[in-house]
Design a protein that fits this description.
Blueprint (H helix, E strand, L loop, with lengths): L25 H15 L6 H8 L13 H18 L7 H18 L1 H7 L7 H16 L4 H26 L3 H13 L10 H13 L5 H15 L5
Helix pairs in contact: 1-2, 1-3, 3-4, 3-5, 3-6, 4-6, 4-7, 4-10, 5-7, 6-7, 7-10, 8-9
Length: about 240
């Protein structure tokens, strides 16, 4: 019977070797899933494809995960863990959050296909708990009360994950579609006449420059400035 990772009973914990001689494990399956997602996109995450990549029977995946959704949550928590492992608190809470947001975003952008299916999930697992504790600690050190820290953390992490999911979806587009979207700012919007679209015409050059890029860094700074200004005595 499939079981929760880490809750292995009896002989189910015995060492199982793949055809390549590697020891099958929770960690190996997660890392293989991330590799498949990076190579072939979200459609690659099937028991059959995992079995082929692992050199093992596809059913062996279910000795470590209840189902594929359980594996998706494990992938999400693994990526969160990679983020947290890179973080070092700063003396300034804003710098701590800025670094956290940028690291979360950058890690998911390294694995855009994984980001598409994990950014909206709540894992309830150790690495996610570490991330929540880290973010709340930064906000509490800035002078926010527990309730405010929770509300602000919600906004902060959704900002980072939301941009990651949006930009990951753009990266995951077929190259031709992505180019068409980007080029539209210079080939379509830049040609709109001022007589019908005066504001677009006035900003056409700036739109063509900024819209094909991510707005995350600027939005994150604006958010942190607003949080700082909300404190009773902000620096």
């Amino acid at each position: 019977m499939p079981h929760h990772p880490g809750r292995v009973i009896g002989t189910q914990r015995r060492r199982r070797l793949t055809k390549t001689g590697a020891v099958l494990s929770h960690e190996l399956i997660v890392h293989t899933a991330i590799r498949l997602l990076s190579q072939d996109g979200t459609t690659a995450l099937t028991a059959r494809r995992l079995g082929i990549a692992l050199g093992a029977d596809p059913s062996s995946v279910y000795r470590y995960f209840r189902d594929l959704d359980d594996l998706v949550l494990a992938v999400a928590d693994e990526l969160i863990g990679r983020c947290v492992d890179e973080l070092t608190p700063s003396a300034d809470w804003r710098d701590t959050l800025r670094d956290m947001g940028r690291t979360v975003y950058a890690t998911l952008m390294t694995h855009p296909h994984a980001a598409v299916i994990t950014a909206a999930r709540v894992t309830g697992r150790p690495h996610e708990m570490r991330a929540v504790e880290y973010g709340l600690a930064a906000l509490r050190s800035g002078g926010f009360a527990p309730g405010d820290a929770a509300a602000h953390y919600h906004c902060f992490i959704d900002l980072a994950l939301g941009f990651a999911a949006l930009d990951a979806a753009s990266i995951a587009l077929p190259p031709k579609d992505g180019r068409t979207d980007h080029d539209a700012w210079g080939s379509v919007y830049a040609r709109l006449p001022a007589s019908t679209h005066p504001n677009i015409a006035a900003s056409a050059g700036a739109l063509a420059t900024t819209m094909p890029t991510t707005a995350f860094p600027r939005t994150l700074d604006l958010f942190l400035d607003a949080l700082s200004a909300s404190l009773p005595s902000h620096p």
